[in-house]
């Protein structure tokens, strides 16, 4: 692995899992309090473009990291909606 690949791997790892703490916090608290799903939804939407870009240039690293990130971001939005509905019923 050369320096370019190492930097790309580290950047992909960091940006992919940046949204994970919000998802984990929401799941632990079982609450949407203090969370705003807009950023996750916007980020996830644009990461879909990164996946398409990765396919166009044939970069498996870009595709892999951004597919994982899309899943994390939309799980965050889904968890927010789920907990918000529960809170509205209570």
UniProtKB/TrEMBL annotation:
Keywords: Membrane, Transmembrane, Transmembrane helix. It holds the Pfam family MtN3_slv. InterPro entries: SWEET_rpt. The chain crosses the membrane at residues 6-27, 39-56, 62-83. Gene3D superfamilies: 1.20.1280.290. GO terms for cellular component: membrane. This is MtN3 and saliva related transmembrane protein. It comes from Bradyrhizobium neotropicale.
């Amino acid at each position: 692995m050369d320096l370019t690949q190492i930097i790309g791997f580290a950047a992909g790892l960091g940006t992919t899992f940046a949204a994970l703490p919000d998802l984990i916090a929401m799941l632990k608290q079982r609450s949407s309090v203090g969370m705003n799903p807009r950023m996750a939804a916007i980020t996830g939407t644009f990461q879909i473009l990164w996946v398409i870009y990765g396919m166009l240039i044939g970069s498996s690293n870009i595709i892999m990291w951004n597919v994982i990130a899309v899943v994390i971001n939309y799980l965050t939005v889904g968890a927010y909606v789920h907990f918000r509905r529960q809170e509205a019923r209570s």
